[in-house]
Amino acid sequence: MQDETSVRADLHEQINNDPEGVIDIIVSLIKKVEQLTDCVSHLEGRLAKNSSNSSKPPSSDQKKKPNPKSRRKKGAKINGGQKGPKGGTLNQSETPDYVHDITLESCPLTGEKLDKSNIVNVIKRQVFELPKQVLDIHEYRIYQYLNSNGDIVSSESPEGVNSPVQYGKNFKHWLVYMNDYQLIPLNRIQTMSMDFFGLKVSEQIILNARHECYDDLSNFESELKNAVIKTSIVHADETGFRINGINNWLHVACSAWESLIAIGSSNMLSPLEL
């Protein structure tokens, strides 16, 4: 590399002999500086990115992880546990379902034989365990009789028992509870049924159980509508949402004690009209 004095001398000579050439050099250097400046800015921007300000995964963060800014407004509550209802404490039951006696036949220290006469105290330890999930199978045997006239007669089948094999009400209630209250998708309920009970339930069985529950609640719905209509003040609101690309409305009409929620395709209808 030439020293500064030599560079200056060459530039002075070139300015005197070829001023246009010096201008070309300056223009070329300006372009180079602009390119290098853009490159540095781009690299600095890449280095500044992390999982909190870009789509980069947290595993790519270097060294110290960034502290994400919380969007929550600072409230009046202090950090830590809040005042209010306490958590439940597990207490021993006086009526356990199963009792397992852990006894000794001989002393581990002396080797002598032990029996009930040697017992001086009993230590009770209880384990609250979920029972194995199985379905009870109820078989209804409807006997047929031949009377003196040669007719075959039988007693009536219990209410709701209409098929050679079917699911019971309690199991159907479980299906509806999982889908409508816990909001578990149909395919996951099918998986749960297989894992818990070893039964492969079809989607149609779940949907049929929901329809049966809907029909059973028709009287309750009518009573609820009448109760809301008779109240002196009715609060009403609606929220729009889409089902399969079609705009629908979730309507609510309520009094101080009752709430009626219904779905309609027009915001001109109220739950009391649906």
Describe the protein's architecture and organization:
This protein has 274 residues and is an alpha+beta fold. It has six helices and five strands; from the N terminus they run ααββααααβββ. Strands 3-4-5 form a three-stranded antiparallel beta sheet. Helix 3 packs across helix 5 (203-216). The model has no long low-confidence stretch (mean pLDDT 85).
Provide keyphrases for this structure.
274 residues; alpha+beta; 3-stranded antiparallel β-sheet; two-stranded antiparallel ribbon; 5 strands
Query: H/E series, N to C?
Result: HHEEHHHHEEE
Shape, per Cα inertia axes: elongated
Instruction: Give me the number of helical elements.
Output: 6
Q: How are strands sequenced across the largest beta sheet?
A: 3-4-5
User: How helical, in percent, are the residues?
Assistant: 25-40%
Please summarize the sheet with the most strands: 3 strands, antiparallel
Strand tally: 5
**What is the mean predicted local confidence, pLDDT?**
85
Which ranges are low-confidence, i.e. pLDDT below 50, for 5 or more consecutive residues?
Answer: none
Report the C-alpha radius of gyration, rounded: 40 Å
Give the oligomeric state of the chains in this entry, treating copies of one chain as homo and distinct chains as hetero: single chain
Beta-strand content bin = 5-15%
Structural class: alpha+beta
